[in-house]
Amino acid sequence: QVQLEEAGGGLVQAGDSLRISCKASGRFFDKHAMAWFRQRPGKEREFVASVSYGGTYTHYGDSVKGRFTISRDNAENTVYLQMDSLKPEDTAVYYCAAKYTALVLSLIQTWDYWGQGTQVTVSS
């Protein structure tokens, strides 16, 4: 069982940067792939980025490629999402997810554990 808690959301202006984090508790964090999803107002939840259990491989959604960077610190049981060049359309609740897997990131269809989310609001 893994518990996930996101932090670092807030209100920023367009063009700003923000880093959000997700702290995991439970066993074998370093055996779990980790991901970020977001849910924009009135939209379905969408994939943002994922990182392999060792941190070597990453995978991004098209809407954030080149602007967002996912990383992890297995010693701290934490995964990060660095968001640069933020746009108003990045406004969403951002969720952290985990899956005990070594599967290629782009092939992962479901995630086993979810956090409660953190709100990111980008003003124009």
Topology:
Blueprint: E1 2-7, E2 10-13, E3 18-26, E4 32-39, E5 45-51, E6 58-60, E7 68-73, E8 78-83, E9 92-100, E10 113-114, E11 118-123
Parallel strand pairs: 2-11
Antiparallel strand pairs: 1-3, 3-8, 4-5, 4-9, 5-6, 7-8, 9-10, 9-11
Radius of gyration: 13 Å
What's the story with the biggest beta sheet?
A: 7 strands, mixed
Order of helices and strands: EEEEEEEEEEE
The separation of the N and C termini measures 40 Å
- Uncertain spans, ≥5 residues at pLDDT below 50? none
Coarse structural class: mainly beta
Mean pLDDT: 96
Total number of β-strand segments? 11
- Tell me the strand percentage band: over 45%
- H/I helix tally: 0
Bin the helical content.
under 10%
The coarse overall form would be: globular
What does this 3D model show about the protein?
It is a single chain. The chain is an all-beta fold. 0% of the residues lie in helices and 53% in strands. The chain contains no helices and eleven strands. Strands 2, 4, 5, 6, 9, 10 and 11 form a seven-stranded mixed sheet that branches. The chain has a four-stranded antiparallel sheet with strand order 1-3-8-7, with no helix packed on it. Strand 7 and strand 8 form a beta hairpin. It is globular and about 40 Å long. The termini are far apart.
